[in-house]
Amino acid sequence: MDVNQRFDRIVHDTVFIRDLCLLEYCPIDDSTFPLSDTIIDRFCSKILPQIGHKIKTLFLSRTSIERVLHATNYSNLNHLGLCDIEYKVAKSLFDDESPLIHMFKNQISSLFINLSDEDDLLSMGALTSIIFIEIFNKCTNLRCLKINPSLFDFGTVNDFMTYRTTICSTLLELHVTLTHMQDCLCILDGRFDQLRILYITFHHICFEFSETKHNVGYFY
Fold this sequence. Notes:
Elements: H1 3-11, H2 14-18, E1 19-21, E2 23-26, E3 31-34, H3 37-51, E4 57-61, H4 65-69, E5 79-85, H5 87-93, H6 101-106, E6 110-115, H7 121-138, E7 144-151, H8 154-162, E8 173-178, H9 181-187, E9 197-202, E10 218-219
Parallel strand pairs: 1-4, 4-5, 5-6, 6-7, 7-8, 8-9, 9-10
Antiparallel strand pairs: 2-3
Helix pairs in contact: 7-8
């Protein structure tokens, strides 16, 4: 079977194209790697323009995010994973001038975003918090958000939350990494008023509880 015939099979394989992961998986350590530029270029030029409207879930790596997202129109894309994405690229995706902003506002209901590590943990926390804020400002249809494993500077987020009675009225599930238990209580103070499932990884736990009411059904 030649290359063109294999491409044709891919285009007509509804199971394959509905949930598309453009990453290479390594079972030895359960890690992922970017696909080669040659393969990504072929997807962008030959495959994605034909199947973009059929894709519902898409996982991308840092080296392919911009090329793939701009390759075609993803009119039915609801679930998006951005792995090892650089801060500048993440920030540009949520910019009001981005040609993709309509997709984030109207389509994306589930978002996984993993920012690439910075040498300075304090800078990493601040940058993650800025992206966190941008997501809730722009993704108005969001049901599930996973930011992993980045660390928050929750002071930045708190400044944003102070003037908002509701942060996100659609979010049902949230996965974050925090530094203090008090940060968790800020999430549970009612401004994520539809939140039902919360997964938290703590880097430091300080048991300073206060009387905070919440409606979360599952807390992990």
